[in-house]
Design goal:
Chains A, B: Pfam families: TetR_C_11, TetR_N. Chains A, B: Keywords: DNA-binding, Transcription, Transcription regulation. Chains A, B: It comes from Streptomyces desertarenae. Chains A, B: This is TetR/AcrR family transcriptional regulator. 2 copies of one chain form a homodimer. By secondary structure, chain A is an all-alpha fold. Chain A folds into 2 domains: about 1-70, Orthogonal Bundle (Tetracycline Repressor, domain 2); about 75-200, Orthogonal Bundle (Tetracycline Repressor, domain 2). The first copy, chain A, has 9 helices and no strands. Chain A has helices spanning about 5-30, 35-45, 45-55, 55-70, 85-100, 105-120, 120-145, 155-175, 180-195. The interface between A and B is large, with 51 and 51 residues.
Chain lengths: ~200, ~200
């Protein structure tokens, strides 16, 4: 066995330990008290190992959240496409509600939001690597519905993506109400059918 | 002239100077570099004057944004109610787009968002003094439309408020696209009419 593969394996293990440590630590102490020192101690590596790969605690946190969301790929999973747009969006919105309501996810995501608001470079990286590919996956599902004649061909796809997904994200951000499957369903009914026709009467 | 009114006037003038200084300073340096010292220097008051009224730079910033939004009252202005729901919501959404696109407003609001994400007490104060009264003003306009038979009586008013207003806020937060009157109109068409019927065809 040559030396290289061993070093690469060690490197990958250190990297995984750092990201895991950052994710859990920020959930415990919040972003303000997160530090490279504490991440290093939790991961059992030296500070310099972290600085070799990432310039700031925000960058480590970004990578930790990214890897948890996208796994080893650089692309988000496509949205389900069973041919039933309403059922597929319901599946995604309900899953989003439950995920955001999970404290394990909530705190790292809030911390990442702070990091991005404070660091324009990180915000750009988020837009390029997360927001834009995720948005494209959503647009692709809506395009499929357009081809199936379920949505108008002239629909503004970006406004449509915002209308479907933004209300859940804002309610989470401002803790403005419960994140439940019922809320997901109420939103979807409004977005698909329109306010004027919403509700059972 | 007694001593009290003079002291009260001085106090009010100091308070206004502090809030004005905080608002502009955060626009120049960002929240991370905002400090009570710098606010005091800009306002021409002593640090202790600020600490007498507010516990943190986040709390000063909150008050500065609050006073700019609500003026001297503790209540937001009601939404326009001309009897034409669509026209009234268009007025409000277009104005919101232009306001959020204004760098003078954008930076202090981003700073306040960071402050609230980092400080749970401030987030609670925001919910009580800003989010809830503003939401009630929006619900009131929708209730008026319900009484006029323009919206279903069974509509989930909170989900409806989110569906109408959250997409603009979320696009602003993530700088996910331009904040324009055209975007406001596209959102409103989707929210009122429903995705399925949206667009000219």
């Amino acid at each position: 066995m040559s030396k290289e593969p061993m070093a690469a394996r060690r490197s990958a293990a250190s990297r995984a330990a750092i990201l895991e440590a950052a994710f859990h630590l920020v959930g415990e102490v919040g972003y303000g008290k997160l530090s490279i020192e504490a991440i290093a101690a939790r991961a059992g590596v030296g500070k310099q190992t972290i600085y070799r790969w990432w310039p700031s605690k925000g960058a480590v946190l970004f990578e930790a959240v990214f890897v948890r969301s996208f796994g080893d790929t650089e692309n988000p999973a496509p949205l389900p496409d069973t041919g039933d747009l309403e059922a597929d969006l319901r599946t995604v919105l309900r899953a989003t509600a439950l995920e955001l309501a999970d404290p394990e996810v909530d705190r790292p995501l809030r911390a990442l939001t702070v990091a991005m608001l404070e660091d324009e470079a990180l915000a750009r990286e988020y837009r390029t690597r997360v927001e834009e590919p995720t948005r494209e996956a959503k647009r692709a599902r809506l395009r499929s519905a357009q081809r199936a004649g379920q949505l108008p061909a002239s629909l503004d796809l970006d406004a449509a993506v915002d209308a479907i997904f933004a209300p859940m994200a804002q309610r989470w951000l401002h803790r403005a109400g419960p994140l439940t499957e019922e809320y997901a369903d109420a939103l979807l009914e409004i977005t698909l059918g329109g306010l004027r026709r919403s509700g059972p009467n």
